[in-house]
Amino acid sequence: MMFTVAIDGPAAAGKGTISKAVAAHFGFDHLDTGLLYRAVGARVLDGADATEAALALSPEDLEASNLRSAEVAQMASQVAVISEVRAALVTFQREFARRPGGAVLDGRDIGTVICPAADLKFFVTARPEIRARRRYDELREKGEETSLDTVLADVKARDDRDMNRADAPLKPATDAVLIDTSDLSIEDAVDKVARLIRDQLPPSV
Ligand code: DC
């Protein structure tokens, strides 16, 4: 059975948590496509050329321990503007989407560019202040010294760059289901997405 779920949205809206939870629930494979751009960003911070790093990316690069830092996130958003970088990552993502047991991909352009024919598409969002608070709590938990104002400015800068780039900008696919997690618990958001997936699955699954 092939079944592809596309989950897009801005930073810290909850799409990663929702994707992981529904993938585990249905036994689908999950790809956090942001990690691809973060891995390229991390290589660039080490002095590599962005396009060369994207072309040479290997699965082990996605395991690097620093990929979740705020510095890498900003660089990921910057390398994501480069069309050659995006092009280098397309095949891997599309092949992942066709995995026989079902696949959930989360990112910015999955429903619009990578998998326009996905079986189900979601656009997960939340107000910037709420997303900044979540990201701030996450970073603090990992021991990163920062302030809420800095994180909010980072989130807004990333939103702005991701939404306004020429190639594959962040925007909801016209057929995406919108999920606003500003006033929704993560459990309720997961339930809502899982129910919609269940409704679309062939009866035998
Ligand atoms: O989802 P994330 O925060 O890990 O993504 C980091 C950056 O990577 C994001 O700011 C923009 C870029 N990105 C992208 O351009 N397209 C994707 N499908 C996923 C991420």
Give a description of the structure.
With 205 residues, the chain is α/β, with parallel strands linked by helices. The protein has one domain: P-loop containing nucleotide triphosphate hydrolases (Rossmann fold, 3-Layer(aba) Sandwich). It has nine helices and five strands; from the N terminus they run βαβααααβαβααβα. The protein has a five-stranded parallel β-sheet, with helices on both faces. Helix 1 crosses helix 9, helix 4 runs parallel beside helix 8 and helix 7 packs across helix 8. The protein is globular and about 50 Å long. The mean pLDDT is 96. The protein binds 2'-deoxycytidine-5'-monophosphate (DC). The site of 2'-deoxycytidine-5'-monophosphate (DC) has 15 residues, from helix 2, helix 4 and helix 8.
Short description:
The chain is of the alpha/beta class and 205 residues long. It has helices at residues 15-26, 34-45, 50-55, 70-79, 83-97, 110-114, 128-141, 148-164, 186-200; strands at 4-8, 29-32, 103-107, 120-125, 177-180. Helix content is 52%, strand content 12%.
Number of strands: 5
Mean pLDDT: 96
Sketch the major β-sheet.
5 strands, parallel
Q: Can you tell me the overall shape?
A: globular
Radius of gyration using CA atoms only: 16 Å
Helix segment tally: 9
Q: Report the structural category.
A: alpha/beta
Helix fraction, binned, reads: 40-55%
What is the strand content?
A: 5-15%
What are the SSEs and their pairings?
Layout lengths: L3 E5 L6 H12 L2 E4 L1 H12 L4 H6 L14 H10 L3 H15 L5 E5 L2 H5 L5 E6 L2 H14 L6 H17 L12 E4 L5 H15 L5
Parallel strand pairs: 1-3, 1-4, 2-3, 4-5
Helix pairs in contact: 1-9, 2-4, 4-8, 7-8
Bound molecules: 2'-deoxycytidine-5'-monophosphate.
